Amino acid sequence: MPLIENVTMSAFAEGRKTCRTVILPCGAVEEHGTHLPLGTDALHAVALAGEVARVAGVWVAPPIYYGLCRSGSRHPGTIGIRGSTLQCLVEDILRGFHQQGLLNVLVLSGHAGWTHMAALADACERVLFEFDDLRIAVLSVLDIGAAVWTDLIETPGDSHAGEVETSLMLHLHPECVTGRAPEEYPTFPRHILVRNKQAFWPGGVWGNPAAGNAEKGKLFMERSVKALVEIIEKLENWSEPPESDPA
Ligand SMILES: [Zn+2]
């Protein structure tokens, strides 16, 4: 299936006769060190969704470029939105999918911050309970990471603008990679919220960019696509037992 944004009304009507599955790529406009672009998470999610759609023959919806950012929220270039804004957007888009007959929805986030993912999951749960015939999966690129790149990755705790994301960008958009930021493993205070994030995370990197390369990025992509195609097959065939009345 082509990208939804590129098809006509007639092509969409024809296509949905045979395909009722759609991927919603989500990202963030967020710092990714001095070497990766602010749109890294969306670029990753969009590329992944496109490749999964090509293999599995499903729709890809126009992406949500903005997300909820915390740790990198004060760094130059980060433009975050509130969790409530993200939730309104996601809920309306999911209702739109349902209205258009797209009943199997994979929300795929390139940004993996836990508050961002919690906001997404909460919004998806709300819409799930509105429609009996809707199936929804929500996950971040890091959620499939353990199954995808554990044996390839050299950097323990790599999570942001480090080995994985640098590799992916070197594979997908090498023209957007500028040198390499230094290796960094920030330590934020436990439990206590801080305003001056940059004091605890000056470089905006969590991991080792120098360990990244395009070959790893290609492998990460190929394995991620395989894992996501399996998740889509599972989602399309998903059925759950009806809820019984409470005793
Ligand atoms: Zn990222």
Detailed description of the structure:
It is a single chain. By secondary structure, the protein is an alpha/beta fold. It has a single domain, classed as 3-Layer(aba) Sandwich (Rossmann fold). 40% of the residues lie in helices and 8% in strands. It is globular, with a radius of gyration of 19 Å. It binds zinc ion. Belongs to the creatininase superfamily. One of its GO terms (biological process) is riboflavin biosynthetic process.
Relevant terms:
247 residues, alpha/beta, Rossmann fold, four-stranded parallel sheet, 8 helices, globular, binds zinc ion, metal ion binding, Creatininase/forma_Hydrolase, hydrolase
Q: Secondary structure elements and their pairing?
A:
Layout (H helix, E strand, L loop, with lengths): L8 H7 L5 E6 L13 H17 L2 E2 L22 H17 L4 E6 L4 H15 L6 E6 L4 H5 L13 H10 L24 H4 L13 H23 L11
Parallel strand pairs: 1-2, 1-3, 3-4
Helix pairs in contact: 2-6, 2-8, 3-4, 6-8
Outline of the structure:
With 247 residues, the chain is an alpha/beta fold.
What radius of gyration results from the CA coordinates?
19 Å
Order of strands, main sheet, comes to: 2-1-3-4
CATH architecture type: 3-Layer(aba) Sandwich
Q: How many separate domains? A: 1
Largest sheet: 4 strands, parallel
DSSP, total strands: 4
Give the amount of beta strand, in percent.
Answer: 5-15%
Give the number of helices. 8
For the record, the CATH class is Alpha Beta
